[in-house]
């Protein structure tokens, strides 16, 4: 079995790296290593950073000639970019921690990493395979904030900008109701409404710098499919 060894001076901090070989359909072989689970699962929403969930596997090493504990892929299983692992091998059982990164597309993703122990000459002693499932749900319609505060200096060439994310896959339409003042809110550089666009985009909001000095407010209505999300927008114009 060929393997790649990654470690730091203080601990074996391992990325998931490709390994070749394996002793059977699952990649399991050898004695002297036991893990407390062979399956892990994560869930998240597409395009949104997943919650900071850590799943752990405890690896008990009974082989007296084991020198390193490593994580990789055996038996032809491909490495995946959305799964990360770290190892704390300062005690026995050792702890292997797994986390996931954000995935844009919804769906069910599966990885088959392995945990292995190796002798000092890098020959393998035993390997145990895992199945990691990542369920990514479609992004729910919504906006990234329901409040936006803009500021600008009167007639300044440098105006405030705010990026408002439209979530979900449905097209959006934006309109505005001014509570005070008029025509001071620009969407993509234009004060003309309604405006519309595809789902999963960012709206660029900015003020009209020629607006008179004062404080203003408005409500931006973002319709996504059959739902409408209201965003309270304020503007402070200084001399």
Q: Which terms would index this structure?
A:
239 residues, mainly beta, Immunoglobulin-like, 4-stranded mixed sheet, 49% strand, disordered N terminus
3D structure, described in words:
This protein has 239 residues and is mostly beta strands. The chain has two domains: 17-137, Immunoglobulin-like (Sandwich); 142-238, Immunoglobulin-like (Sandwich). Helices cover 0% and strands 49% of the residues. The protein has no helices and 20 strands. The chain has strands at 17-18, 33-35, 39-45, 55-61, 68-73, 83-88, 94-100, 107-111, 114-118, 124-129, 131-137, 142-143, 147-153, 162-167, 172-178, 185-187, 195-197, 202-207, 214-224, 227-238. The strands form five sheets. Strands 13-20-19-15-17 form a five-stranded mixed β-sheet, with no helix packed on it. The N and C termini lie far apart (72 Å). The model is unreliable at 1-25 (pLDDT under 50).
């Amino acid at each position: 079995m060929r393997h790649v060894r990654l470690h730091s001076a203080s601990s074996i901090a391992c990325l998931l790296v490709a390994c070749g070989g394996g002793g059977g359909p699952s990649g399991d072989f050898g004695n002297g290593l036991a893990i407390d689970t062979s399956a892990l699962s994560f869930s998240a929403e597409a395009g949104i950073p997943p919650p900071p969930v850590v799943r752990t596997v405890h690896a008990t090493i009974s082989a007296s000639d084991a020198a390193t504990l490593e994580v990789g892929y055996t038996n032809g299983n491909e490495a995946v970019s959305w799964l990360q692992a770290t190892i704390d091998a300062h005690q026995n059982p050792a702890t292997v921690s797994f986390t996931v990164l954000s995935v844009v597309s919804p769906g069910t993703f599966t990885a088959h990493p392995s945990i292995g122990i190796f002798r000092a000459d890098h020959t393998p002693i035993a390997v145990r395979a895992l199945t990691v499932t990542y369920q990514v749900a479609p992004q729910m319609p919504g906006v990234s904030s329901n409040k936006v505060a803009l500021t600008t200096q009167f007639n300044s060439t440098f105006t405030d900008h705010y990026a408002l994310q439209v979530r979900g896959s449905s097209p959006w339409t934006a309109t505005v109701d001014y509570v005070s003042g008029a025509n001071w809110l620009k969407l993509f550089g234009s004060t003309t409404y309604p405006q519309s666009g595809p789902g999963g985009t960012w709206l660029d909001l900015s003020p009209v710098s020629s607006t008179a000095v004062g404080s203003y407010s408005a409500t931006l209505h973002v319709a996504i499919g059959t739902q409408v999300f209201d965003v309270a927008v304020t503007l402070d114009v200084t001399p």
